[in-house]
Amino acid sequence: xxxxxxxxxxxxxxxxxxxxxxxxxxxxxxxxxxxxxxxxxxxxxxxxxxxxxxxxxxxxxxxxxxxxxxxxxxxxxxxxxxxxxxxxxxxxxxxxxxxxxxxxxxxxxxxxxxxxxxxxxxxxxxxxxxxxxxxxxxxxxxxxxxxxxxxxxxxxxxxxxxxxxxxxxxxxxxxxxxxxxxxxxxxxxxxxxxxxxxxxxxxxxxxxxxxxxxxxxxxxxxxxxxxxxxxxxxxxxxxxxxxxxxxxxxxxxxxxxxxxxxxxxxxxxxxxxxxxx
Length: 277
Fold this sequence. Notes:
Elements: H1 5-11, H2 23-35, H3 37-40, E1 43-49, E2 52-57, H4 60-68, H5 70-77, E3 88-93, H6 128-148, E4 152-153, E5 160-161, H7 168-188, H8 193-200, H9 206-230, H10 238-251, H11 260-267, H12 269-276
Helix pairs in contact: 7-9, 9-10, 10-11, 11-12
């Protein structure tokens, strides 16, 4: 059932620090600048599914050719804030509607900064190869212009960025990989504590270690609680291994200091009996 307009407006609040525009709307508005007018005539962004941008093309030949240029298109997308969450592209054949030409005074697409000088209108490309060549030329001109203004390459993927060592997608991936590495150490060698873990994970802070530790303990306890409620453990016995790491990470002690009494005190009688007796 449709909500009354007043109720919908009252329920809506802008995201703190985020764009007011839907990412798909922003990408569609900037599409011609991202890929050039030639390709914009035969393609259009259609949907965003998780981290995938679905692009409709006018023919299978275009879909095939554009798939080869996905890295360049993704780099262009990552230069606008609304496109940084796009990790991959998917092309499908469909009807491509040509957007209406903006009239005088129309606002520039979001996230693109000051308006650029307009290129002279080119005649339509005679072939797919010519259109793709023009697109590559636009990308290269864009890269050269940014380098001239001091932009540098991301240390991981090479996309041009204004500041820092990594672009936003790579920075997020590095943070996720780093957290997984800390979690793995907490599982395999929980007695290392912060000092031992920091020797293996560069620049790890106490605050970061404790945040990951508390989150992992909560997740492990939820899994152990489900096993206790079900009255059984998994066939592979993973609950016993997790319980062992849980006790060691909770106490911060080395394995030789852990006694059955310590385990029972931390896990409780029911879990102790289920897992070990």
